[in-house]
């Protein structure tokens, strides 16, 4: 029997390797005509090499001096036999492997976010459970059946203030409601009761009976040190959409807007270009650390939708109001006890100040002797006192008067300077309190 001097070349690569980077291993295996016997060829060894090494090269040369045709036939047979062994071994390996090992063959590309994106995502996820959706229900009588039904007449946003179940929102969100419902991010809904409200500052406090684990108070920040240009985030339910996040910057500070309920000015309001739309009212305005810095309350827009100019009541103003409402159910605020004319009427007279239209005798101004506007015996209009300053601070219009009184306390004595006829007089007035109940 003629002897064979033989070698075979083949290369195996793992799924994670490439031919250019894989090391090469060359082996010389002795072969004889009994090549297909198991003791001369271990068919699983190449598979084990693949699983354990990135690349393996085996070289077996087949040569027969007297027959080139038999060499070619033998090479084809060996290739077919090796392919069968490889398929069987791989199938057996995958059969024994668990699901996790099989999953390792699947290559997935993880979503990569920038640092600022991750911070925004984290802020939304951490604060969303604290933000609620408020539905304002009104009682309506059916015209045909005369049944009384509760129908939604408005909606807005709010946020959890403390673990006692207090929820803060805007007063105009709950105005005129017969019933109120509060919905959390997980769609759990609770009936709410009004604890108190401040119409002048457009702030209201509700209370719900919810489990302690459901109540996640929002972190309270500070609005005194805010800067124009710093990033802000608004979370709310615009147009009834579930928990929406908008971002922007503080575009202005110390703005002044009028209360939607009373028209009384609200000072030191934050202006932002973060999109605020109907339904965002009462929701929180947050800084980059996720702390509350204001309550979204109004927008400036001819169309009724966001025009990039939104306003938020600063948290420093809100905090004192909420504390009074939670503790007493009311807000005490000093007043002069007068009714005054529109600013345009005073401008037509060619003077600046606040024209007193009425000063009830039971009020602070009436007791101090301020004169109201009235008609004489002939029906002619007699102008009352025109307030020009309070405690030395000039009063040009009604907003100035409100701003000065907001800095005073109930029971405090103030010196009111008035224009009476053609001369100025100073009149001391002791301020009384105005009560706002739920």
Automatic annotation (TrEMBL):
Residues 325-422 form the PDZ domain. Keywords: Chloroplast, Hydrolase, Plastid, Protease, Serine protease, Transit peptide. InterPro entries: Chloro_Bact_Ser_Proteases, DEGP1/8_PDZ_dom, PDZ, PDZ_sf, Peptidase_S1_PA, Peptidase_S1_PA_chymotrypsin, Peptidase_S1C. It is found in: Plastid, Chloroplast. This is PDZ domain-containing protein. GO terms for biological process: photosystem II repair; proteolysis. It comes from Escallonia herrerae. It comes from the Eukaryota. Belongs to the peptidase S1C family. The keyword Transferase does not apply. PANTHER family: PDZ DOMAIN-CONTAINING PROTEIN, PEPTIDASE S12. The keyword NAD does not apply. Gene3D superfamilies: 2.30.42.10, Trypsin-like serine proteases (2.40.10.10). One of its GO terms (cellular component) is chloroplast thylakoid. GO terms for molecular function: serine-type endopeptidase activity. CDD domains: cpPDZ_AtDEGP1-like. Its main location: plastid.
């Amino acid at each position: 029997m003629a002897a064979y001097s033989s070698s075979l070349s083949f290369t195996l690569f793992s799924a994670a390797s490439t031919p250019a980077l894989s090391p090469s291993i060359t082996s010389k295996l002795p072969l004889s005509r009994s090549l297909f016997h198991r003791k001369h060829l271990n068919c699983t060894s190449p598979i084990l090499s693949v699983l354990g090494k990135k690349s393996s090269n085996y070289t077996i040369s087949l040569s027969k001096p007297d027959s080139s045709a038999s060499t070619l036939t033998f090479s084809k047979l060996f290739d077919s036999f090796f392919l069968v062994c490889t398929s069987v071994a791989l199938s057996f390996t995958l059969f024994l492997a668990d699901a996790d090992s099989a999953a390792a063959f699947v290559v997935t590309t993880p979503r990569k976010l920038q640092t600022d994106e991750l911070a925004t995502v984290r802020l939304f996820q951490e604060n969303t459970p604290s933000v609620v959706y408020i539905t304002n229900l009104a009682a309506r009588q059916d015209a045909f059946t005369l049944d009384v039904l509760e129908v939604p007449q408005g909606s807005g946003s709010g946020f959890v203030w403390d673990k006692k179940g207090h929820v803060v929102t805007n007063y105009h969100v709950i105005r005129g409601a017969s019933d109120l419902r509060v919905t959390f991010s997980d769609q759990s809904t609770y009936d709410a009761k009004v604890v108190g409200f401040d119409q002048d500052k457009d702030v209201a406090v509700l209370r719900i009976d919810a489990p302690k684990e459901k109540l996640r108070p929002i972190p309270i920040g500070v609005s005194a040190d805010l800067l124009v240009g710093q990033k802000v985030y608004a979370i709310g339910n615009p147009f009834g959409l579930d928990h929406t996040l908008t971002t922007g910057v503080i575009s202005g500070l110390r703005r002044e807007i009028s209360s939607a309920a009373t028209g009384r000015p609200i000072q030191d309001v934050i202006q932002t270009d973060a999109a605020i739309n109907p339904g965002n009212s009462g929701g929180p305005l947050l800084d980059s650390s996720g702390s509350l810095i204001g309550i979204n309350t109004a927008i400036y827009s001819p169309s009724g939708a966001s025009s990039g100019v939104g306003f938020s009541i600063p948290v420093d103003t809100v905090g004192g109001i909420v504390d009074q409402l939670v503790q007493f159910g009311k807000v005490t605020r000093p007043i002069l006890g007068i009714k005054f004319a529109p600013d345009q009427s005073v401008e037509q007279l060619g003077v600046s100040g606040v024209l007193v239209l009425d000063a009830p005798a039971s009020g602070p101004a009436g007791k101090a002797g301020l004169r109201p506007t009235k008609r004489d015996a002939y029906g002619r209009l007699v102008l009352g006192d025109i307030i020009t300053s309070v405690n030395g601070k000039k009063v040009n219009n009604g907003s100035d008067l409100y701003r000065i009184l907001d800095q005073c306390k109930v029971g405090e004595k103030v010196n009111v300077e008035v224009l009476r006829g053609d001369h100025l007089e100073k009149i001391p007035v002791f301020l009384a309190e105005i009560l706002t109940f739920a």
